[in-house]
Specification:
There is one protein chain. By secondary structure, the chain is α+β, with helices and mostly antiparallel strands. The chain folds into three domains: 116 residues, no CATH class; 104 residues, no CATH class; 45 residues. Helices cover 60% and strands 16% of the residues. It has a five-stranded mixed β-sheet. The radius of gyration is 53 Å and the shape is elongated. The N terminus is likely disordered.
């Protein structure tokens, strides 16, 4: 470490000159390099800190991706396929909305929150952030909401990365403090400009490291669970019949329905046959007219009406024939 930096750290009043500013810049580079070497060196300080830390101090990021299927009983059939499909879709959407509310309650009770929700109708994807110590309990409660069809869990040990970032933050914080101490003692305008430029660079690096530190801490402290909900209609479930009336009213209602069904069926048959009946009637009329015209032409001659045939002579009675055949005496 340079003499200027050491003096600033000890609270001395360093003399600012071009040499001190050069030493300050070199000191910052040495600190950054030392922080980087801490994570790379196998027997280095970072490795020693990790080995000395207790087992429960390990920094692990846990994530899970679950798929749960919610089964919905079908609604009673009404005889209208379109209405039945719409009713089943509405039942699935209601089941998803109810399950989503349960998921939100589970996360809130565990000390977490719902980060996002995307979807609608019969499907929904929900992202949850829950405390790491409640991770397993929340997983079990979510799996009990329906049929667990998929479960993927990942664990990432970031202990070394956390130790490295923490060490970098400590080193950069000390570096920024030294530069600020030198800036407070600067009197020459050129020295002030140079020190402020160096301070801005180091503060930017410190802010970046602090953001990394906060991100890692948040990922370790709060586990992420992604839940995919899907509602399906149980086609094999028995549909409870609609409550029916008993006695005379039930018989009358059933008879009236059968009566209407019969006339509805009869009307359908007549509607289907009516076009053919009209066609057959027209064809029969044409055939009848043709036959009638043919008969009229056959009865009349070529030049006029048909001649009346001569009457056939009536034979005389039997007694007259015997008298005629007996010779006169």
């Amino acid at each position: 470490m340079s003499q200027a930096a050491a003096a600033a750290t000890a609270g001395a009043q360093p003399e600012l000159n071009a040499s001190n500013l050069s030493d300050l810049a070199a000191d910052g580079g040495e600190m950054d390099a030392a922080a980087g070497e801490m994570a790379q060196a196998a027997p280095g300080a970072a490795a020693e800190q990790i080995a000395a830390a207790p087992l429960d101090a390990s920094k692990v990021i846990k994530t899970a991706d679950l798929s749960v299927e919610v089964t919905v009983a079908p609604v009673p059939e009404t005889g209208d396929p379109t209405a039945d499909r719409e009713a089943d879709a509405a039942a699935r959407a209601a089941a998803i909305a109810q399950t989503t509310a349960s998921v939100r309650s589970i996360a809130t009770t565990a000390g977490g929150f719902q980060a996002s929700a995307d979807g609608g109708g019969s499907s929904m994807t929900i992202s949850l952030r829950v405390p790491a110590e409640q991770y397993d309990a929340v997983i079990d409660k979510l799996a009990a909401l329906g049929e667990l069809t998929s479960r993927i869990e990942t664990s990432q040990d970031v202990t070394a990365e956390v130790v490295d970032v923490n060490s970098r933050v400590e080193s950069m914080t000390a570096s920024v403090a030294r530069v600020r101490a030198l800036l407070a003692q600067a009197s020459d305008i050129a020295d002030v400009i140079s020190i402020e430029s160096e301070l801005a660079v180091r503060e930017a690096n410190l802010e970046s490291l602090q953001q990394q530190q906060a991100y890692l801490s948040g990922q370790v402290a709060m586990s992420t669970i992604s839940l995919s909900l899907t509602a399906v209609t149980d086609d094999g479930a028995a549909v409870e019949p609609v409550a029916e009336e008993n006695g005379f009213v039930a018989g009358l209602s059933a008879g009236w329905i059968a009566f209407l069904d019969f006339f509805g069926w009869l009307g359908g048959v007549l509607g289907a046959v009516l076009p053919f009946l009209v066609l057959l009637a027209v064809a029969g009329l044409l055939i009848w007219l043709a036959v009638r015209r043919t008969r009229r032409r056959g009865n009349s001659g070529p030049d006029g009406p048909p001649s009346t045939p001569a009457p056939t002579p009536t034979p005389p009675p039997a007694a007259d024939r015997e008298d005629a055949l007996t010779p006169a005496s």
